[in-house]
Write a structure and sequence with these properties.
The protein is α/β, with parallel strands linked by helices. The chain contains 8 helices and 12 strands.
């Protein structure tokens, strides 16, 4: 059974209860909130794996909550909406939602959407594995294990490794890495990036001068083995 935790944010207690019963029957853990403000608090306190989020709510609607959530989390979000206009769906997706479901909905379809999202969108609350399985990153604790041994990284080294690990297997350009870790003003400082890549290799590789995990794509950027 799936033990991942789902946060339901909806101002209709009856609907929340029906969804809770179905989710728990399917093996999920469930937490609930009645509006966007409570929902954001529970994201920080309970660390759910996915959010089911209603659009129309008092105090803070689903669109606003989703926008604020995206300021600090990439949790997968399934938006519930009674509106059928395409512009409302677009608004939800532009706010950061990953999928949407129109009310009224079939509970089995809801579960199918939840499972599909959890497969497609990696949860930031679960350890991330990369580097041929030699690197494990606990994003909640900001801890890194290399070949099952704890490794101390500086904040910059950690952020750079995390960005590479989240895109493991693909080449990430110098500009993308510099902007993502240091900011727009550093996008031309390739030598700066090279220094930190060398620091990372010293901590990740068995032989930093012959890297097998963090590889250079000459003239383009770097790729971390998946």
């Amino acid at each position: 059974m799936d033990q991942r935790r789902i946060l339901i944010v909806d101002d209709e207690p009856g609907l929340r209860e029906l969804v809770r019963i179905k989710l728990e029957h399917e093996g999920f853990g469930v937490v609930q909130a009645g509006n966007g403000i409570e929902g954001l608090e529970l994201v920080r306190e309970e660390h759910p794996d996915l959010v089911i989020l209603d659009v129309m709510m008092p105090e803070m609607d689903g669109w606003e909550m989703c926008r604020k959530l995206r300021e600090f989390s990439q949790l997968p979000v399934l938006m519930l909406t009674a509106k059928v206009q395409s512009k409302d769906i677009v608004t939800g997706l532009e706010s950061g939602a990953d999928d949407y479901l129109l009310k009224p909905f079939n509970m089995d379809e809801l579960i199918a959407r939840v499972r599909a999202l959890l497969r497609r969108v990696p949860s930031p609350n679960r350890p991330l594995s990369a580097g041929k399985g030699e690197i494990t990153i606990d994003r909640q604790k900001r801890e890194v294990l290399v070949r099952e041994e704890s490794v101390d990284l500086t904040p910059i080294e950690y952020d750079l490794l995390l960005m590479l690990a989240e895109g493991a297997g693909t080449v990430m350009s110098h500009e993308t890495l510099l902007q993502g870790v240091w900011g727009q003003e550093y996008t031309k400082d390739n030598d700066y990036l090279k220094v930190y890549v060398w620091h990372l290799r010293r901590k990740l590789e068995q032989n930093p001068r012959d890297p097998k995990l963090l590889q250079t794509e000459w003239g383009v950027g770097y790729r971390l083995a998946p």
